[in-house]
Amino acid sequence: MSFARDVVEAAPPDRLALVELARDGSRREWAFGEIARRSACMAAALHRHGVRPGEVVLTLVGNRPEWVVTMVACFRAGYVTLPCTEQLRAHDLRLRLDVARPAAIVCDERNRAELEAAAPTCPVVLVPDEALFAPGLEDGAPPHASAAPGDPCLITFTSGTAGEAKAVVHGHRYLDGQHLQAEHWLGAQPGDLVWCTAASGWSKSARNVFIAPWMRGAAALLHDARFDPHERLDILDREHVNVLCMAPTEYRVIAARAEPRPVASLRGLVAAGEALNPEVLRAFRETTGLWIRDGYGQTETGQTTGQPVGRDPRPGSMGPPLPGVKLWIDDGELCLDPATDPTFFLGYLGEGVRHGADGAWVVDADRRDGGAWHTGDRVTRDEDGYLHFEGRADDVIISAGYRIGPFEVESALVSHPAVAEAAAVAAPDPERGSVVRAIVVLRTGHEPSDALAAELQDHVRHETAPYKYPRIVEFAHDLPKTASGKVRRALLRDDDG
User: Fold this and answer.
1) Considering only CA atoms, which of 495, 402, 419 is closest in space to residue 456?
2) In this structure, are residues 289 and 276 in contact, taking their beta carbons and an 8 Å threshold?
């Protein structure tokens, strides 16, 4: 499948593709015909800068149409695209430049200074620039690439939750493979408006901002602004959004700081990235009438599980495996048969995938034939085959012989009315080996105190098994997170008080 030809250009040219809500407050609608033309213009511009099929194009653009257009241009021309989030700093960008060696960069003006601090040596295309899309320039686009499913297509970096971020290389099969989660988890329908709030540059954004919705005949909403829980609810109402895909952190903040409310147009709420707390699930169920359907995947695997469309949800579960995907549990750890996963990666750049001497890509071996993939995530499976996340294998706390998953402790803590966020990690203990240490962010109107710490300990004892309660409770203004919103528990473990 060619995404540019078979999805973008095959759509009726007047069908709605994008709704753009710009940072300056303006709104604009983009049809598929205009997206197709502009992507051809961008492919032509990159070609004029000397980019050839197989070479890397790095993007540093916010959630705006120029980012989408550049991605489609790369899919069309056979360039390997490396989308980067705006939250990266010069050091992070330098790492990506050194590892990926892009032939060109597409950057918007507000990220220009940070990029220049990283000192790129390749050509930079600055956007917005309407001169790039003047009528007739699309005629200079290179022909549609004839790419095989295993040819590199997309590079995304892991979030670095537990260490240095790695460059994950996906083949063109990754694009076609999005049909699976688009149909069985995202659940968009023709004519829908889908809003995936993930910032450009993350694995979820590469597949759910526009790729999966367009495969289902839906339009995509782009909101180029910082997260505001109240504004988000207003946009859902005003734009008549049908399917909302957000990070669990965003759902939690809305539940804690805003008032979720019914939205007549909403038909689906989905989340992925980390498990959702039962209290948050109930808050949205009670106000919107919808369960948030959780899903699970990794940068390397793409989505592999999801609460199915059209079936009774299982609150607190990340769902069963997607149809055809083989998952099992080995000593508590979730494992995957890569041969059954249509979105499994080709390898890490520099580890199994590399640039050859002539600049061509070399894939040492198809990782789908490499045996079981160990996710590093601990899960349980219920009697109906639904999977439940317990925590990263290296996040599990072993105290006096008990294995304690941090998520259950964190869920108990955030069910207390004073707690906005919480993280649970292991702290060394001379008798028990380790004990649970909780770092708590309080809601507005509550102040840290020894009395509150003791109250939270009693609360956890009541909400879950008593041995799981945090023997250490600390208060913080915020929790260290990756740019994608995941708590960096490794940093908290290293800073043990």
Assistant:
1) 419
2) no
pTM score: 0.85
DSSP reduced 3-state for 487: strand
CA R_g for the chain: 23
**In 99-147, which ranges are E strands?**
104-108, 124-127
Task: Please check the confidence at residue 358 and state whether its pLDDT lies above 80.
Answer: no
pLDDT tens-digit profile of 152-202?
Answer: 999 998 865 445 678 999 999 999 999 999 999 999 999 999 999 998 988
Tokens standing for residue 355: 């640039």
Q: Which helix (H) or strand (E) holds 48?
A: helix 32-48
Q: How far apart are CA 398 and CA 379, in angstroms?
A: 16
Q: 51 with 225: CB under 8 angstroms?
A: no
Tell me which of 399 and 244 has the higher pLDDT.
Answer: 244
Q: Which of 10, 41, 73, 28 is nearest to 214 (CA)?
A: 10
The DSSP line for 404-470 is E-HHHHHHHHHTSTTEEEEEEEEEEETTTEEEEEEEEEEPTT----HHHHHHHHHHHHHHS-GGGS-
Asked if residue 128 has a cis previous peptide bond (ω within 30° of 0), the answer is: yes
- Can you list the domains of the chain with their CATH numbers? 3-381 (3.40.50.12780), 396-494 (3.30.300.30)
Residue 222, phi then psi, degrees to nearest 5 = -115, 120
Token pair for residue 60?
Answer: 């540093």
* Alpha-helix residue ranges (DSSP H) falling in 270-360: 278-288
Mean pLDDT computed over 121-141: 97
Pairing of strands 124-127, 104-108: parallel
Dist CA 470 CA 322 (whole Å)? 36
The span from the CA of 488 to the CA of 103, in Å, is 32
